[in-house]
Amino acid sequence: MVSAVEASSSKRSGKSELPSLKPSNIVALDCEMVGCGPKGRRSALARCSIVSYEGEILYDGFVKPMMPITDYRTKWSGIRPKDMVGATPVIEARRVILKHLK
Question: Given this model, what pLDDT does residue 25 score?
Answer without folding.
Answer: 84
